Amino acid sequence: MGATVVRAPDVARRWRRSSDEGTKSEQSRKQPGRDARRAGGTRTLVVALLAAILTVSVYWPATRGGYVWDDGGLITKARDTLDEWRDIPAAFGRAATAGDGVAYYRPLMIASFVVDAKLFGLDAASFHRTNVFLHGINVGLIVAALAVFGCSIGTAAIAALAFGLHPLQSQAVALILGRNDLLLVPPIVVMLVGDERLRRTRPRLADALVAACFAITLWTKESGVAAPAFLLLMDVLWHRRPAAAALRARLPLLAMLLAVTLLYGFARLEVIGALLDNGKYPSIPLQSRPAVAAAIFGYYVRHALLPWGMAPSPYHPGLIDPGRSELWVAAAFVLLYAAATVLAWRRVPRAACGLLMFALALVPVLGLVAPMKVLILDHRAYLPLFGLAVVVAAADRSLDGARGRAVAAGLLAGLALLTRQRLPAYGDSLSLWKLGIEAAPSSNYAHNNYGAALMDAGRYPEAVAQFREALELDPTYDIARVNLAGCLEYLGDQAEALRQFEILAERRPHDARILQRVAQMRGRAGDLAGAGAMWERALAAKPNDPGILRGLADTLDRQDASAAAVPLRQRLVELAPGDQTAWIALGWSRAHAGQPAEAVAAYESALRLGPESGALRIQLARSLWSVQRWRDAAAELARARTLGVDDPDLARRLAEVGAFDEQ
Question: Which residues contact 644 (CB under 8 A, 6 or more apart)?
C-alpha cells in the first residue's frame, strides 16, 4: 500500500521525547526568572542592611544619653513593673504612667522595656541602644517594602534614608519615651507588604495578617488607627485602582479591622477609664481647635521641609493668636501642603499617596478630638514621615540617573549632619531644655522644665528665674507655680513660698495636695488656726486620706482641742488597725481630752502590736494613774525603767500612795 506503519511503542517514545524537550524548554524559560528574583532579593537584603547600618551609625551618639524628660517616670520610677517576665502580660492590664497627671496605655512599649530590663538591666544606655537599633531596623524594612512595591533598589534606599536621617526623628530615637513611635513602623510595613504579596493568591491569609498587624499597631499606640487608610491609598494612588472598586473589595477587611478597633477600645476603657479623654489634660475649646490643628500641622510640614530650628516642646498660646505671625506662617504651610497634594494627585498620584499618608498619620495628634498634655512634640512625626519616604519613592525615574542620585546623596548627607548636631541636646535634661528655651522662648512648658532641670542640678536661684518666666508667660500654669513655691521653700523664703501655695489654693480650691501643703506651712509658721482651716478643707476633698486626718488631728492637739482630735484618731486606727503609731496617738489624744480609761485601752492595743518601748510604758503608766490603778501604773513604770525611760514625778506620786518603792 506504500503507507508507513507506526508501531505503538514508537509513538510513545516520540511523545516522551517531545514532552521532555518541552519541559526542558519551559524550565529553561523559568529558571532565569527565578534566578533574577533570587538575585534581586539578595541585593535588596544587602542594601536594606547597609541603609540600616548607616542609620545606626548616625544615631549612635544617642546611646550615650541618660534618662531624660519622662524617661525616668516610665522606667526608674516604675522599675517594680519591669523586673519580672510576668510584667509583660500585666502591661496589657495597666496604664503606663510617665508622671503626675499623665496616663498612657502602651502595653507593647512597656513589654519592650521589660525585655530590656531583664536582658540588660536598668542602665539607660541599654534602652537607648534598643531605640537606635529599632530605628535602623525600620529603615531596612522601608527599603524592602518600597522594593516590593516596585521601586528600584537605589530609589528605595534613598527614600528610606530620607525617613531615617531626617532631624525630626531625633526626638523619637534619642528619648526612650519615643519607643512607642519606633514600634509603630514594623507592623504597618508588614501589613502593607503582606497585603501586597498575598492579596491575589491567598486573600484570607492576607486579611488575617493585616488584622493581626493592625492589632499590634493599636496596642502599641492609638495613633496607629490611621494605618488601614494606608491600604486604600496604596490601592487608589499607587496602583491606580478605581476608588469605589477598591473600597468595595476592602469592605470585609474593614469590617474585621473595625472589630479589632472595638476590642482595643474596650481594653483601653477598662484600663484608663476612657476612650479618648481620660480627664488628665485640659480640653481645647471647640472654637480654638481649627487654629490649634493648623498650628500643629503647619509646624510639622514646615520642619519636614526645612529641618532646623525645632524645639523639644514648641507650643505656646501665641501660635494660635491671629494677631501674631506664627499662626499665619503655619496656615501658609498648610495651604502649601494642600496645593501640593492636589497637584500631585493630578500629575504624580504616587507622590500624592505619600503626602496623604503624612496627613492621615498626623490627624490623631492634631488636637481635633483627643486632648493632649503637650500639643506639639517631634516624636509624633515619626510615623507620618513614612509618607515622606513614599513621596521620595514616587520620584523613581528622577533618582535613577547619576545626577539625581548625586543630588539625593548631598541632601541625605545634609540631613545626617543636622541630625548629628541635634542629638547631643537629648543627652541630658539641662542640654535639652536649654535648647528648648533657645528655640522656643515663648514656651512656658520649656521654661518650667529647664527650671526643674536646674533644680536637679542644685542651681536653685536660676531655677526660680525660669519658673517666674514660665508664670509670666502663663499665670495659670500651676505646675510652674508648685515648682516655684518648692524652690523658694528650699531657699528659705518661707513667706513667699507660702504666698505662692495660697495662690494655688485659690485657683484649685478642691486640690487636697495643695491644701495640705498650705496647712503644713501655716502650721510651721505658728498659724494653727489657719492651718486647721486648711486641713478641714483638705479633709472635705479627701475624707479618708490618712495624711490629712493625721495632720488635722495633730493641729487640734497643738491647739489643746484634743477632744476634737479623738474622732480623727479613731478613724485612723479603723483605716490601719495594725499601725502601732496610730494607736499611740489615739491614746495621747484621749488622755489629753480627759478620757484616761479610753487612753489606757489605746495604749494597751499599741503594746499588743509591738514593739515595746519605755516611752509607751510611761504613757500607759500615766493613764493608769489617772484612773487610780496605782499598782498597774507602778508595774508599768518599773518596766519602763528597765527599758531606760523614767518619770520621776510619777514615781514620787506612786510612792506617796504606797504603790511604788523608789528604792
Answer: 614
